[in-house]
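Budget justification aside, the reviewers requested a transparent look at the raw inputs and outputs of the sequence design task funded under Objective 1. We therefore reproduce one unedited record. The lines immediately below are the structure tokens for a 322-residue chain.
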């Protein structure tokens, strides 16, 4: 991975301050992202899974500096993202983009969809009317929308079509990396596969890399090259897709996988994940998963395990493998 990485994240943290009273005294910190290191190569899809509240969205937004990092390093194509001046972020965001779960969040209801896509180009300094028209038409074609649809307003479109427009906006400046934050979770199941296929076609054609955030392991299995599992702000397992599904090691990964296995006929032995993810304001001591772990040992509440390599490219943070 070293050298050829498009994105390299080292020990990234994003803590939200919690204040109380009129004087807004600091009463605690929400450790939404708590020391994440990962890398993504050009054209690679890294799937990021974990239950709701594990910090996946915050990680994606912090990498793009839509949220300011508390500490850590982010290197994107040789650019030191953390120390980048605010005025230079626009250029970065042309090359590293985000697609959100809710397509409405990136569309202005009062603007035609053609206008919305055009706006994404104008923001990045394209002003020639002929070039704008040509690029909007090309982007719409790329995401499978008829050029004539450009005159319509968002409310005239279905959820899947709106997500296509969101993707077109994200692709405006030919990005190298797209952070896709649950891009199909809000869509009807019948439409999800179409949007996933579209994203993969674009990847194959343009050599795009994705950080693909999803709580749904079957989606991640379909499209990832590698998979990372996040729990309470930390990566707890990371491996190539084949290795990940053949030889899952972390008890949290086992539990997530057993939940999808039992959805199939004949599936059994479900490992139950009881309760919710604990609050990142006050995470459990030691290994933060120990309170829900089916393989908990005496050491687990005492000491946090390190992320260690157990096989080439396979990393896990669990005392079982230390
Ligand atoms: P996920 O994407 O895995 O569902 P999030 O990144 O949305 O998780 O959230 C991780 C944790 O950070 C949650 O406990 C959430 O409540 C908290 N959090 C997210 N955004 C903020 C914020 N702006 N202020 C305070 N806490 C936040």
């Amino acid at each position: 991975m070293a050298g050829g990485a498009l994105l390299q994240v080292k020990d990234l943290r994003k803590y939200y301050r919690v204040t109380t009273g009129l004087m807004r005294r600091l009463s605690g910190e929400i450790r939404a992202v708590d020391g994440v290191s990962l890398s993504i190569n050009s054209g690679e899809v890294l799937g990021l899974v974990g239950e709701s509240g594990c910090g996946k969205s915050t990680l994606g937004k912090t990498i793009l500096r839509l949220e300011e990092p508390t500490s850590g390093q982010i290197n994107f194509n040789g650019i030191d993202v953390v120390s980048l001046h605010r005025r230079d972020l626009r250029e970065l965001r042309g090359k590293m983009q985000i697609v959100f779960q809710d397509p409405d969040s990136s569309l202005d209801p009062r603007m035609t969809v053609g206008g919305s896509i055009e706006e994404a180009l104008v923001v990045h300094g394209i002003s020639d009317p002929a070039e704008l028209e040509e690029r909007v038409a090309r982007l719409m074609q790329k995401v499978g929308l008829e050029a004539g649809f450009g005159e319509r307003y968002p409310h005239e479109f279905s959820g899947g079509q709106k997500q296509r427009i969101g993707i077109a906006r994200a692709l405006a400046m030919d990005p190298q990396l797209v952070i896709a934050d649950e891009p199909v979770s809000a869509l009807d199941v019948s439409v999800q596969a179409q949007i996933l296929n579209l994203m993969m076609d674009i990847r194959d054609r343009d050599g795009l890399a994705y950080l693909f955030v999803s709580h749904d392991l079957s989606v991640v299995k379909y499209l990832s090259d590698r998979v990372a599992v996040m729990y309470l702000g930390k990566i707890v397992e990371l491996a190539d897709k084949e290795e990940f599904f053949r030889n899952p090691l972390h008890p949290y990964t086992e539990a997530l996988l057993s939940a999808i296995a039992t959805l199939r006929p004949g599936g059994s032995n479900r490992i139950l994940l009881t309760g919710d993810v604990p609050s990142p304001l006050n995470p459990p001591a030691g290994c933060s998963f120990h309170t829900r772990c089916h393989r908990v040992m005496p050491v687990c509440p005492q000491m946090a395990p390190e992320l260690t390599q157990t096989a080439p490219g396979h990393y896990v943070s669990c005392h079982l493998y230390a």
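The chain has a mean pLDDT of 92. The two ends are 23 Å apart (CA to CA). Computational costs for records of this kind are itemized in the attached budget.
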